Amino acid sequence: MSKSDTYVPQDSSLTKRWRNEFESWIGKSTLGYTETLSKIRDEGLSFARFGDGEMLLASTADFSLGFQENSPKLRKELDRILLNLNEDLLVGMSPFWRNEHWDKVFVEVWPHMRELVPQQATVYGSAYVTRSAAFWKEKRGLVDSWRSVWEGRKVVIVAGRRSRFELVPELFDNVKSVELIESEPVNAFKDVPRLVGELKGRKDSLVLISLGAAATVLASKLSEVGVQALDVGHISNCYNNVFNGGPTPEKLPRIAPAESKK
Q: How many CA atoms lie within 13 A of 42 on its CB side?
């Protein structure tokens, strides 16, 4: 039994209110894992993900991630994406989790988010479709769903220099071609304008982005110029965690060690 199954919240009235509101909204608005990928594939949508980090960046001015400083400009971009007004973009939200960490997140983020997100008739994808939890639940079915998204496509990977992103053959050996474009390993949000300029002509390619919170913004920006772009996060590390016994992404260094020169 997982920790989230056994956790009993120490409710304050405020925590309970935010948790219940968020759970209700997520339950009626968010697609499942394979449904998310089917919608992306069938409708040719871009995909921007909101995990706890992106939610906290959008909602809390003094919150920063170790690899991404917060700023008014970043918060404004994340708020714009949360409004979910772009028909070519599927916004992915975290599922509802019942544990101590997420109770703290709800109290921080929901008062801000509830003023932005549409309360009815809007569909969100699952941000966790790239995460180990989804691979554990769906097993090979999720692998097949992901592979169907990029089968036979020209793919451009955008990742930070010395990123831990891997082209795992079991995920990616059915693409037509692969090109890598490197960005900043830390504070990549500042590199988004350059990346949009470089990628806006790649309308015949599928852009896969592993770049933290900057990926959320970049996927949205590229969708606005007619380029399909998917924020795939730690998909390779999570695949390796579930199927090959590798460590979770959180236990890996953010930047791979430099290769020694002989």
A: 7
pLDDT tens track for 154-212: 999 999 998 889 999 999 999 999 999 999 999 999 999 999 999 999 999 999 999 99
DSSP class of residue 225 equals T
Domain map of the chain by residue range?
Answer: 14-244
- pLDDT tens per residue, range 200-215: 999 999 999 999 999 9
Rg (CA), the chain: 18
Of the candidates 182, 180, 178, 181, the residue with the CA atom closest to the CA atom of residue 154: 178
76-113: burial string, b at 16+ Cβ within 10 Å, e else = ebbeebbebebebbbbbbbbbbeeeebbebbbbbbebb
Which parts of the chain are beta strand (E)?
Answer: 46-50, 89-93, 125-126, 154-160, 177-183, 205-210, 229-231
Distance CA 135, CA 141 (A): 8
Which runs of E-coded beta strand occur in 8-104?
A: 46-50, 89-93
Q: Which of 81, 111, 138 is nearest to 19 (CA)?
A: 111
Dist CA 110 CA 60 (whole Å): 11
- The residue whose two tokens read 């309970």 is 16
**Paired tokens of 97:** 């989790």
Q: At 65, is the secondary structure helix, strand, or coil?
A: strand
Taking the complete model, does pTM exceed 0.70, yes or no? yes
